[in-house]
Amino acid sequence: MKKIILAVILLAAAGGAVYYFLTQKKAGIPQQTSFKQMLLGEWKIDSVALSKKDSGNAIALFALALDSNFLKYTYDFKEDGTIIKMLGDSTLAEKNSYQLKDSVTLVFTEGDGTAESFELKLSAKEKNWFVLMDKDSTNYYFKKQSR
Question: H or E segment at 105?
């Protein structure tokens, strides 16, 4: 009889311990933040990986050729959909905006809305970086900036 009571007590203690660890593990899981919330703040294009396709690279090569500072800009994504483009401590007077088309598609618009738009797909993300892929398979690697 003593062995049965001891077994029941041990099983209850083990069950309690398992329950405790499982509830602690659930409480420790960080909440997933949406891409829109993660996107807010200052980001810089860390690098550009051009597509290996022979017919690709038109947009990326065009941007790199026209602007020698392309990889030096910092982009401040605001909650209202505007993007403030900066070079060092100087704010540039360009009107840029963004819009999330769905959870993985970001549409950039340069100018007042009648100018050219670029649709980029989110291909990877972490807390301090994300990668956007252009339609020609060029990848733009963004890195979070801290002030």
Answer: strand 105-110
Cα separation, 81 vs 119, whole angstroms = 15
Task: Give the C-alpha distances (Å, rounded to integers) separating 36 from 39, 78, 87, 108, 120.
Answer: 5, 10, 24, 14, 14
Q: Specify whether the CB–CB gap between 85 and 97 falls below 8 A.
A: no
Spatial CA neighbour of 100 closest among 79, 85, 73, 127: 79
The amino acid at residue 126 is: E
And the tokens for 101? Answer: 């088309």
Please give the torsion angle defined by the CA atoms of residues 140, 88, 80 and 107, in that order, rounded to the nearest 10 degrees.
-20
Confidence of residue 40 (pLDDT cuts 50, 70, 90): very high
Q: Which residues contact 67 (CB under 8 A, 6 or more apart)?
A: none
In this predicted model, what pLDDT tens digit does every residue of 71-81 receive, in sequence order?
Answer: 888 999 999 99
